[in-house]
Predict the 3D structure of the following.
Amino acid sequence: MLTPEIILNIGYIALAIAGISALWLITAYRGRVAAVGNEINRQTTAPFNPDPRPAPPAVSIIVVAGDDASALEQLIQKLFEQEYPSAEMEVIVINDGKNENIKDVVTRIKHLEQRPNLRITFTPAELRNVSHRKLAVTLGVKAAKYPVVMLLTEQSRLFSNQWLARMAAPFANDNIDVVIGSAMPSVKSDSGLGVRYRSFVHSVDTTEWLSAALRGRPWRGHRANLAFRRDLFFSSGGFNGALNLRDGDDDIFISRLCKPGNTEVVIAAQAHVRYVFPSAKHEFRTARPARFYSSRRLDKSERRFFGFASLCNWMMLLSAAIACLAGLWLRNWPLAAIPLAAVLTAWIIEILAWRKTLKALRSRPSLLAIPFRLLRLPLTNLRHRWLSHRRKFDYHLF
C-alpha cells in the first residue's frame, strides 16, 4: 500500500533523476550541440586569405554523374568559377548512368569553353555484383593526375566560389590526409507532411558526425563533399571492406582512413554543400535505414553519446512527471514545481543550442518544437534500425 511516506520518497527519487538528467543535458550535451554551430560560425567569419599560404595543392575533382545532365552542367559551371588557379585543378566526370546527355554536356563545355582540364569517363553498364558508385569513384581516382582528390555528385550544390580553396587549404599541411566537409539534403527537395521533422532529423544526424569529427573521432563522411590524398586511397585498399554493400561505403571508408591528427573538418558556410538527389524524403525513408545497417561495422562510442542524450530527455520528462504528481498528491508544492522548472530550464537551453546550430546549418527552423522532436527521434531511430534489419538482404550486392 502506498503511504504518504512512500509517495514522498518516490517523489524525491524522481526529482533527483530529473535533476541529474537535466544537469547533464545542459552541460555535456548542450556543449556538443553548440560546438558545431560555433565552429561553423567561427570558420565562416574568420579571415580567409590563401595567398600567404604555400602554393595551393593540385586537386582532381571527381563528379559521379547519374542521369541529371542539367544539374551536372550547373555544377561544372560553378566549379570553373571557383577562385582557384586553373592550372592546379582538373574535373573528371564519371558517367554512371544511361543518359547520353551527360556526355554531350561535358563535350560541349570542354570544347566551346576551352576547358582542357575537364575530362569524362564511364562505368560499364553490364557489370554485376559491383556498386557502380564505388566503381565510378575508383575509376576517377585512378584517372586523377593530381595528389588531392575531391568527391562530389552531380547533384551537389555549391554556394560560394571559395568552396575549392577552403576544402583544399588544409592539404598545405603534409600531416593532413582527409578533409571532411558538411553536406545535407536540400530543403527544397522535400515537401509535404513531415517535411520539417525530416529536415530536423537530417540536421541532427549531421551534427552527430560533425561533432565527433571536431573532437578528433571521425566516423562518417559524405560522398557529396569529401577530399583525401590519392595515395592514401590506394595504400588503404580503397573501398575494401564495403565492396558488397550498396550504401554506407563512405562511412566505412572514412572510419578506416581517419586517424588522430590526419583529418581536418571544413564546415564554413562557404564550403557547405547541399544535394538534391536522392531527395530528402527518399534519404529519410531509404538511405537512412541503409546507413544504420552499414554503421554496425563502425565504432559506436561517439554515437552512444547522442543515444544517451535521448535517454536523458525521456528520463528527465518521465521523472519530472512522477515527482510533480507526487507533489500534487501530497500538496507539497515545492516538490511539484521544482521538476517542472528543471525540465523547462533544460529545454530552453537545448532550444538555444540547437537554434544556433540549425541556423548555422541553414536548416528549417524548429524552435519550440525542438524538445518534442528530440523526444520523437529515438522512436524514429528504432524504426529505421528495424527497417535496416528487415531489408538487410537488399543492402548486399552479393
User: Anything to note?
Assistant: Residues 4-39+302-395 form one domain. The beta strands are 59-65, 89-95, 118-122, 148-153, 156-158, 178-181, 183-185, 226-229, 263-266, 273-275. The CA atoms of residues 196 and 242 lie 32 Å apart.
